[in-house]
Every structure is written in structure tokens, then in C-alpha cells.
Design brief:
The protein has one helix and no strands. By secondary structure, the protein is an all-alpha fold.
């Protein structure tokens, strides 16, 4: 993750290497993470 999840611009996530055998596509997981950050910030 690039950025701070608490302040500043919404962080950017980058897949470097999949761990184990993910059951969810990275794009879906990262979108869920960003939505959670936005919800936590009230954006």
C-alpha cells in the first residue's frame, strides 16, 4: 500500500506477488479495501 489509510489521499494498492492461492481477485480485494478506508473516513 502506498499512502496513509488515516489521512491524506486515498492509498493506492499494488499487487507485488500473490500469497498462497487467493480466493478473490486482487482487483476485487483492493476495491473492497479502498471502500472500507473511504467509509472509515466518512467519504
Amino acid at each position: 500500500m502506498e499512502g496513509n489509510p488515516y489521512i491524506g489521499a486515498i492509498p493506492k494498492l499494488m499487487q507485488v506477488k500473490p500469497l498462497a492461492e487467493p480466493t478473490v481477485a486482487f482487483e476485487d480485494a483492493s476495491a473492497t479495501c479502498v471502500r472500507a478506508i473511504r467509509a472509515n473516513r466518512g467519504v
